[in-house]
Amino acid sequence: MIKAILFDIEGTLVKDKRYQALPGAVEFVRARRAGDVALRLITNNTTDRPEEIVRKLRDTGFDVRVDELFACTTAAIEALAARGLRRCYLIGTPPLRDMLRDAGLALVDSPDVEAVVVGHDPALTYAMLRTATQAIVEHGALLLALHRNRVFHDDRHQLGPSAGATVAALAYAASVEPLVVGKPSPDFYRQALASLGVSVEQTIVVSDDPFADLAGAKRLGLRTAFVLCGAYGDAAVLERLAPEERPELVVRDYDELARRWPE
Questions:
Q1: Distance CA 209, CA 130 (A)
Q2: How many CB atoms lie within 10 A of CB 242?
Q3: Helices (H), the chain
Q4: Distance from CA of residue 33 to its chain's centroid?
Q5: What are the domain boundaries of the chain?
Q6: Which CATH code, of 3.40.1160.10, 3.90.226.10, 1.10.10.10, 3.40.50.1000, is assigned to 4-44+183-259?
Q7: pTM greater than 0.70 (yes/no)
Q8: Per-residue pLDDT of the chain (263 residues; tens, 9 = 90+)
């Protein structure tokens, strides 16, 4: 029996950065709550503070709370603190820069740092990649990826490469493996499950991203549902995954998800 849902947000509950609720999503969440199914919002959003994400969701009709949100930004701050790393070079947006500074991290624009922190950055330049590569290769900095999402839809629903592409470039250039703190990090999912007090068998992950979200969840034994209303509109994309990583459910919309909901 499903006792908890881990929901992706952008592309899954809302269309994109405009935070317009997808048809049927608000009603689906409301119905699951009425059935005593707990939820967590799991997000790789690196452009908004957690409280701002929840405010925008509430404005569009979702009854959600800040304590129900698990964000990769919080995971990154905790990972750096656990390793005693404070001096960082950031590839990311101004809101992410503010969040890290508010957490007491020193952000500097030079390679002489302890960590390179990578989020989505639409203003990315070659000079930034060069500084980050120098930091990792010449100064031994940790490459910390907030996530490895492949693509990103902006507030005009235009598709572009996400942080995962930047992380892949740096990892290849520096010949290192990044520390990934957001989805699909196993620890990210385990923390969400621990907060709910449920097992992997009792939990389903709902997302529009079969690569960054669902394949990692499936490897942990979580049940998975792929909604074709966000980054990928064609189930043929699943052919790029190994059979054991493919989701159990593939649905066009929330009406279909409700009809096929596993009991």
A1: 30
A2: 9
A3: 25-34, 50-59, 72-82, 94-102, 126-139, 163-174, 186-196, 216-219, 254-259
A4: 23
A5: 4-44+183-259, 84-180
A6: 3.40.50.1000
A7: yes
A8: 899 999 999 999 998 888 999 999 999 999 999 999 999 999 999 888 899 999 999 999 999 999 999 999 999 999 999 999 999 999 999 999 999 999 999 999 999 999 999 999 999 999 999 999 999 999 999 999 999 888 877 777 788 899 999 999 999 999 999 999 998 899 999 989 999 999 999 999 999 999 889 999 999 999 999 999 888 889 999 999 999 999 999 999 999 999 998 86
Structural tokens at position 8: 């992706």
Q: Which two tokens stand for residue 3?
A: 């006792």
Q: Contact 171/177 with Cβ under 8 angstroms? A: yes
Q: What is the CATH number of domain 84-180?
A: 3.40.50.1000
